[in-house]
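Teaching soon. Got one?

===
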Amino acid sequence: LARKYAKLHLGPERYEIITMENSFHGRTLATLTATAQEKFHKGFEPLVPGFRYCPFNDLEAVARAIGPRTCAVMVEPIQGEGGVNVPSEDYLRGLRELCDEKGVLLIYDEVQTGMGRTGRLFAYEHYGAPPDIMTLAKALGGGIPIGAMVTTDKVAQGFSAGDHASTFGGNPLAARAACTVFDVLLGEGVLENCQRMGEYLMEGLEVLKDKYPSVVDVRGKGLLVGMELRGRAKEVALSCLKRGVLINNIGDRVLRFAPPLIVGKGEIDRLCEVLEEVLSQNKG
């Protein structure tokens, strides 16, 4: 949509999309190219042309990268696969202002951060910087496969009937499931629980950080939280799994916590107990 809109309204030379280093946007050939991590590119070359990469959380780098061929900037409000990297408070607002100034579109990939994961319905709401285009999936269907692209009325004019489609697009079962997910998130206190339990989880992990030198950092929003270690993250995750606690490691330095949005204090207490037991045995 960004390219189609740009060619119609900005000029035929506007096709380039800027994405961020350590991002993750998917595994189709285009979204894999948009993913600025070389390890995901291997074996799929030649990649799709028309993408440029910048460091995450660096407004000056994006400003330098925007040129006469740029049509859009795409970013995750919080990087998930990159290590639960949380930007500075002014980063998304700065991108919004920069895109407005340069006449390019701002795209948010909220596949991992959206649908309440960070304590707001969409993560960008923490920063007050709305996008022109936003992608959603995963939690959108509550277990039913669905993906969605959301955009403004203005940018939607880049598409007309028949321009783009997918085999299962508009599937009524998936669409009904997504509507129900919205009803539950907005009407049953799920977002509020995510906020409270996210704070509780962060507090518990901060206690472990203060106690164990192997813990470098704790960061995140809501119930998307990362704990950075000096190393051996995979070993820690496997040790927790053996004790009945499932934690995802990102590489060998970051543990990612993304519990259900209905998690309670009892489950978080159990997590912290198991994690402390493992960290105490992995002091090296």
In short: DSSP finds ten helices and ten strands in the chain.
